[in-house]
Design goal:
- With 622 residues, the protein is α/β, with parallel strands linked by helices.
- It folds into 4 domains: 214 residues, Thiamin diphosphate (ThDP)-binding fold, Pyr/PP domains (Rossmann fold), CATH 3.40.50; 161 residues, TPP-binding domain (Rossmann fold); 185 residues, 3-Layer(aba) Sandwich (Rossmann fold); 28 residues.
- Helices cover 37% and strands 19% of the residues.
- The protein contains 23 helices and 24 strands.
- The strands form 5 sheets. It has a 6-stranded parallel β-sheet, sandwiched between helices.
- Strand 5, helix 2 and strand 6 form a beta-alpha-beta unit.
- It is globular and about 75 Å long.
- The termini are far apart.
């Protein structure tokens, strides 16, 4: 019941857990001029650390803050991350676990969110603040420090971390956590440890703390001096290129990117996170860049004298471990809302929102265009590359089709707005190269952390975020075996996705790397592993047992027919097809990996020599 303190501030007496939930339900966001809940729901697996108090607080508000039961703490948090990504960081989810293994299961997902700059609020049960029952069930004790427990492990993988040791701490901690979750530059996972006794404690909270609050994402304008410097560098360019990163999507800057490229005649290459910033057939599109990129984009990068990186941290898969930029006089301009990313690699930095920065930089470049011959050259390279892709995805009667041919078949049958989603293994490279986006914003490859297991969980979250389109999940047999239980979750909640399982008999792309660097095929493909009983997995029956519509097909023709049935299905549909573990689409750049300096294997020695030759192209000091 509400009452008055001596200072006449109206208060309400709630437990810490009840106050936490009430605060979350009061937070609102604006998306496309519509006010929506900032927190769209809570993924939860309850245990003794969060069921008696947090669950008690969540149950009465399930109509405004839905609680969804996960099957695994890691996968439900991955679903939350994919939801936030699909909603372009403007709306997010909560994931809560009990203490002990429930909490540590969340750590991998926290690392995914941290690497990808994606918001998720993680709430974990914690040991008792009073320590009277120590050691409690699932407590990991530290002999030298009784204040430490497994929740301290989140410090390495979160942007905001707090342990709520008294109920009133929520009043300062929660606004800080929400501010970080919504910050375009500092965005990432927030973690709150909730000691079991403190969750139950009551406090007289000010009612104003629970007043509805509408949040808008800050759009940071660039500094005028930094814009001027960038414009000066670009005006001197003869062979400039734009690199489109994931920040283009989060900023909502795809139209500005296309307009900038068209007005100033710049070719555009895409990072993995930036894929589908332009449609595949856009005249400025020169293809995906880097290690799993296209020969066309890598040719453009090799000759570029000015590189304008927009919304990307330029990780090694984009830069070919800093070997793709072949012009020794290349200058880098980095447009990024995050100071940390904008100032990397000796860049001339423009710290600001991608949408605003591109528009304002374009104004400063009014009347300037790169030489038409350069854009024409990029278009020629891109045309040659698309002929390579045409050949790679063309249907064949091969007994075991390649990944690319399966991707091509799905691509031809998908609707323009469908989302292609992947995360690990060889499917990332094949999709980056071969998936042709007919609409912007239709591609999600989680490759900031390259987390096996994101695929199916992420598909569930993405389907929640955008139920009006089909989410097509591509997953290998290895990643399927690692984490698949959210097939069941998607059936239970009615969030349909289409899951394509490509079974190549193990960890095919790592086998490729192993053999490509001179090693013997060892412990990656099942046939080269210590296996006493070589039993194949019937993935279709497994998926069907979890309630999905599922089919095993052998040929591409059968796959296409099954894909049509999956499209028409009223629930999650799974298509399983065996694929070739040795056929890959070309176009890759060099990659810095550890190749042994000495070995008894001639193949390793040869690979080391080749690696050293590639390393000569690597930029040092950037």
């Amino acid at each position: 019941m509400a009452r008055y303190r001596e200072n006449k501030m109206k208060t309400v007496r709630l437990t810490m857990a009840q106050a936490l939930v009430r605060y979350l339900t009061a937070q609102r966001a604006i998306i496309d001029d519509e006010e929506v809940p900032l927190f769209a729901g809570v993924f939860a697996i309850f245990g003794h650390g969060n069921v008696t108090c947090l669950a008690e607080a969540l149950e009465p508000v399930q109509d405004v803050l839905p609680t969804l039961r996960g099957q695994n703490e890691q996968s439900m948090a991955l679903a939350a991350i994919a939801f936030a990504k699909a909603r372009r960081r403007r709306q997010m989810m909560v994931a809560t676990s009990s203490v002990g293994p429930g909490a540590t299961n969340l750590i991998t997902a926290a690392a995914v969110a941290h690497s990808n700059r994606l918001p998720v609020l993680l709430l974990s049960g914690d040991t008792f603040n009073n320590r009277l029952p120590d050691p409690v069930l699932q407590q990991v004790e530290h002999f030298d420090n009784p204040t430490r427990n497994v929740n301290d492990a989140f410090l390495a993988v979160t942007r905001y971390w707090d342990r709520i040791t008294t109920p009133e701490q929520l009043i300062t901690s929660l606004p800080h956590a929400v501010a970080m979750l919504l910050d375009p530059a500092d965005c990432g996972p927030a973690f709150l440890g909730l000691p079991q006794d403190v969750q139950a404690m009551a406090f007289d909270y000010p009612e104003v703390f629970f007043a509805p609050t509408v949040h808008r994402i800050r759009r940071q304008r660039p500094d005028t001096a930094e814009l001027a410097a960038a414009a000066t560098i670009l005006r001197s360019a003869k062979k400039p290129v734009l690199i489109a990163g994931g920040g283009v999507h989060y900023s909502g800057a795809t139209a500005e990117l296309a307009d900038f490229a068209e007005q100033h005649a710049l070719p555009v290459v895409e990072t993995i996170a930036g894929r589908a910033s332009l449609t595949t057939d856009h005249p400025a599109n020169a293809g995906p860049l880097g290690i799993v990129g296209s020969e066309s984009a890598n040719n453009v990068a090799k000759e570029a004298d000015v590189v304008v990186a927009v919304g990307t941290r330029l990780q090694d898969f984009t830069t070919g471990s800093w070997s793709v930029f072949g012009n020794p006089d290349m200058r880098l301009v980095s447009i990024n809302v995050g100071r940390f990313d904008a100032t990397k690699h000796r860049a001339s930095s423009v710290v600001g929102d991608a949408k605003a920065s591109l528009a304002e930089l374009s104004e400063r470049l009014a009347g300037w265009r790169a030489p038409d011959s350069w854009l024409s050259q990029a278009a020629d390279w891109y045309g040659q590359w698309n002929r390579v892709v045409d050949a790679a995805v063309a249907p064949t009667d091969a007994e075991l089709p390649s990944y690319a041919r399966v991707v091509g078949a799905a691509n031809r049958l998908a609707d323009d707005g469908d989302l292609a989603l992947c995360a690990s293994g060889g499917l990332v490279g094949e999709l980056v190269k071969a998936w042709r986006s007919r609409k912007v914003g239709t591609f999600d490859a989680e490759f900031g952390y390259s987390c096996m297991g994101y695929e199916i969980a992420g598909g569930w979250g993405a389907a929640m975020a955008n139920p009006e389109r089909d989410v097509i999940v591509f997953v290998g047999d290895g990643a399927y075996l690692m984490m698949n239980s959210d097939l069941y979750s998607s059936v239970l909640t009615g969030h349909k996705m289409i899951v394509v399982v490509c079974d190549n008999g193990g960890f095919g792309v790592i086998n490729r790397l192993q053999v490509g660097t001179g090693g013997a095929s060892f412990n990656n493909l099942l046939e080269h592993s210590r296996v006493q009983n070589p039993v194949g997995v019937d993935f279709a029956k497994h998926a069907e047992a979890m309630g999905a519509h599922a089919e095993q097909v052998k040929t591409l023709a059968e796959f296409e027919q099954a894909f049509g049935r999956a499209k028409a299905a009223d629930r999650t549909a799974v298509i399983v097809i065996k694929t070739n573990a040795d056929e890959w689409t070309p176009g890759d750049a060099w990659w810095e990996v550890g190749v042994p300096e000495v070995s008894e294997r001639r193949e390793v020695r040869d690979a080391r020599s080749a690696h050293e030759e590639g390393k000569k192209q690597q930029r040092v000091g950037v």
